[in-house]
Amino acid sequence: MRKSRWLVSALVGSLVAMPMSSNAQAPDTLKDQPTSFGRDVIGALFGPHWNMFLHGGATTSDRLTLQAAAPVGTARSLETATGYNVGGGAGIDLFSHMGVRFAYTFTSSGLNFKTDNGNGSTALDINGVGTLLSHTASLEVIRYMLPARSAFNPYGTLGVQGTWWGLTKHSNLLRVGSGAQFGVGPLFSFGTQIRSADRLSWRLEMAMTSGHNPFTGNKSFRALSGPTIDEPTSLSRIDFRVAGVYHFDSPSSSGSAVVARK
Fold first, then answer.
1. Angle at CA 187, nearest 5°, toward 186 and 191?
2. pTM for the complete prediction?
3. What structural domains does the chain harbor?
């Protein structure tokens, strides 16, 4: 998981930062680069290039904690089952290949203890011990590979997210912490936006977050199955999403008729 996390980070970083070979052509009302902050950036906020979206999908995460178990020499980990995420937000295309979006996401994942002896055993498995919930607010810069309202448009994002954690117990093997569980961390994602109608697009994306592990710290949630062997301070999650996007401007009104920049 950690190796794949860094590979995804590198891919998203290169996608967001890569020079755009299509910069020679751009919509006539959305520029590639700002020439005046007041006119091009602030002015764009009051323009028609806003959108709203709803998204949903599946969520996976790293191991939360590893604990010793009986008999001696055995261990089991607390892990999340594949859960679900739902949410929505709003965005704006500031330039031909770049925009900003704000989003809220709710996730829910079941918690299971899994045998972690390295031999494939399931003797110590305990399923359904609780449900891990999260509320995440995020701010991202989105970089399109093609002009923003292109029919088929790969993109990458880079941003920051804050997550509030909750725990619903179904077993006496978990304990809710005495303090609020909140963390801030980076957010990376990449995907493809597909225009299906004049003002409607769909996004298929994978988003990765990294932040505070709610099972770490003096006031954190606690697993009570045995002595703790490993308790990572950070937790990585991956959300696989499908989003429906409504654009307040149409491709024709936003200058989707691409013109060559002289």
1. 160
2. 0.81
3. 2-13+50-254 (2.40.160.20)
Query: Looking at residue 256, what is its pLDDT?
Result: 40
C-alpha to C-alpha distance for 64 and 235, rounded to whole angstroms: 7
Give tens-digit pLDDT for 208-235: 999 999 999 888 999 998 898 998 999 9
Grouping H, G, I as helix, E, B as strand and the rest as coil, residue 40 is: helix
Phi, psi of 150, rounded to the nearest 5 degrees: -65, 155
Ranges of the chain with pLDDT below 70: 1-48, 252-262
User: What is 3-18 written as a DSSP string?
Assistant: HHHHHHHHHHHHHHHS
pLDDT digits (tens, 9 = 90+) for 78-97: 999 999 999 999 999 988 89
Q: Partners of 69 in the beta sheet? A: 74
Could you tell me if 26 and 103 are in contact, meaning their C-beta atoms sit under 8 angstroms apart? no
Amino acid type, 216? T
The candidate with the shortest Cα–Cα distance to 237, out of 112, 109, 56, 75, is: 109
Partnered with residue 51 across adjacent β-strands are 91, 247
- Please give the single-letter amino acid code of residue 113: F
